[in-house]
Design a protein that fits this description.
The protein is mostly beta strands and 143 residues long. Helix content is 0%, strand content 45%. Strand 3 (21-27) and strand 4 form a beta hairpin.
């Protein structure tokens, strides 16, 4: 029986495998983008805005920085047992010019990455239980 695919974090990304997109917010006063969404006050120090609209964010950007993670994260984060090292990337989004962190697609090796390369959003299973596959966004080099 097929497991149900559900987001690992609700309302942070669109569950569309063909066209995934992070869901942020945009201050209606100054236009600053935020991820995750902001709903209380604008974090731009030059703005006192308190109104925000949902803003689908760019699914592509430039690799700003990256590293490999060779140890399991502390709780409450989920790590497979046995632990498998993974790569974390900081990607500067095309339109918003903000940096968003995320894991890199599992098949990508660290020596295949270089700062400045084009990256795209991708959805992949983070972990599973008896009923569900928990999906999260990841980054991968643009083919």
């Amino acid at each position: 029986m097929a497991k149900t695919k559900v987001p690992a974090i609700d309302d942070w990304f669109r569950m569309d495998f063909a066209e995934p997109q992070l869901l942020g917010s945009r201050c209606t006063e100054c236009g600053t983008y935020f991820f995750p969404k902001e709903s209380h006050f604008c974090r731009n120090p030059n703005c006192s805005g308190t109104n925000f609209e949902e803003a689908p964010l760019s699914p592509r950007g430039k690799l700003w920085s990256f590293t490999n993670n060779c140890y399991p994260p502390p709780k409450p984060y989920m790590a497979p047992d046995p632990f498998v090292p993974y790569i974390v990337a900081a990607v500067e989004l095309e339109r918003e010019k903000m940096v968003v962190l995320g894991q890199v697609e599992a098949s990508v090796k660290i020596n295949e990455l270089s700062a400045g390369m084009d990256m795209e959003l991708y959805l992949e299973t983070l972990f599973e239980d008896d009923d569900n596959e928990y999906i999260v966004w990841k980054w991968r080099p643009v083919a």
